[in-house]
Amino acid sequence: MSTNWLDFGAGIYALLGGSNIGVIISEGRAVMVDAGLDRSVSRKALREIETLHARLEALVLTHGHADHFGGAGWLAERGVPVYAPPLEGAIAAQPLLEPLFLYGGAAPIAELRGKFTLAQESARRVEPLIPGPLTLAGLPLTLVPLRGHAPEQLGVAYGETCYCGDVVFPAETLARHPILFCADLDAWLETLAGLPALPYTRFIPGHGEPVAEIAPLAALNTARLQEIRTLTWEALTEPRESSEVLRIVAAAYDVTFAAPQFYLLALTTLHAALTSLQRAGAAVVEMDANRMLWRRT
After folding, report:
1. pLDDT per residue over 125-136, tens digit each?
2. Per-residue pLDDT tens for 5-31?
3. Mapped to the 3 state alphabet, what secondary structure does the chain carry?
4. How deeply is 18 buried, as exposed, middle or buried, from its count of CB atoms within 10 A (0-12, 13-18, 19+)?
């Protein structure tokens, strides 16, 4: 995995790669934001911190997806305290929860046990965080609620920089993976609507390049989520099971799922879209001959 260490000045750093890692340093004390997919990425970030003659004193996880917390267990073993929103932290402490979530609570199939959906190491003990101001390792941070992609995702702001997790994805990702993973579509849309008003001049997302202006990416991601919801509603020309609806939405994007895990990730998003339609009174769910069907109202 290629990585790129960026120095923005004023103690603000980022390690760009498959999943970006943030680092904040002041007076020799460092806080890391997210830990990458596995120990190899977090080890590289730790080496960079050490070359700056700083000590890593805390790790903050923006959310509980394995590509963002997979390296947390390795750091925790070395005595680095780990912090996360309560629900997201529970997943980092018990990584099996992520594939359980994707497989409806049942023992996960083998395809969900790879490191992208089941972190190979757990953080074991994760201290809970809530939105608002926080001093951590002597650094004044602000924890920003960014719910939607994950249920309790938080951004980490320091000065004019916000490490914003997976609140937005770049255009390249939207083209490659048009059905964005989403836990709560309504919450994500609400989060995106408020992003441009946040008082930061640099946003470092979990994927892609840092940006100075978040509004264009917020608009791009908003449009995609709204499109997914519209396509879901349009698929309900007759009562259908969610798997049927997903097949129709996937065809609209010319998506062919190459493996079960990709199907299950997209099915979660489809369920989020159906829940959004139900909340709005645009769709209802009903049972018919032991089939759970969705229909328009």
Report:
1. 999 999 999 999
2. 999 999 999 999 999 999 999 999 999
3. CCCEEEEEECCEEEEECCCCEEEEEECCEEEEECCECCHHHHHHHHHHHHHCCCEEEEEECCCCCHHHHCCHHHHHHCCCCEEECHHHHHHHHCCCHHHHHHCCCCCCCHHHCCCCCCCCCCCCCCEECCCEEEEECCEEEEEEECCCCCCCCEEEEECCEEECCCCCCCHHHHHHCCCCCCCCHHHHHHHHHHHHHCCCCEEECCCCCCECCCHHHHHHHHHHHHHHHHHHHHCCCCCECHHHHHHHHHHHCCCCCCCHHHHHHHHHHHHHHHHHHHHCCCEEEEEECCEEEEEEC
4. middle
Do residues 111 and 103 touch, judged by C-beta distance below 8 A? no
Contact 168, 66 (CB under 8 A): no
pLDDT exceeds cutoff 60 at 90: yes
| Token couple for 142 | 């602000």
CATH tag, 4-225: 3.60.15.10
* Extents of the domains making up the chain: 4-225, 234-296
How many angstroms separate the first and last alpha carbons of the chain? 48
User: pLDDT, tens digit, for every residue of 181-229?
Assistant: 999 999 999 999 999 999 999 999 999 999 999 999 999 999 999 999 9
Q: Which residues of 136-162 are buried (b: 16+ CB within 10 A; e: fewer)?
A: bbebebbbbbbbbbbbbbbbbbbbebb
- Topology of domain 234-296 in CATH is Arc Repressor Mutant, subunit A (1.10.10)
C-beta separation of 97 from 147 below 8 A: no
206: left (phi over 0), alpha (psi -120 to 50) or beta: alpha
Q: Do domains 4-225 and 234-296 have the same CATH topology?
A: no
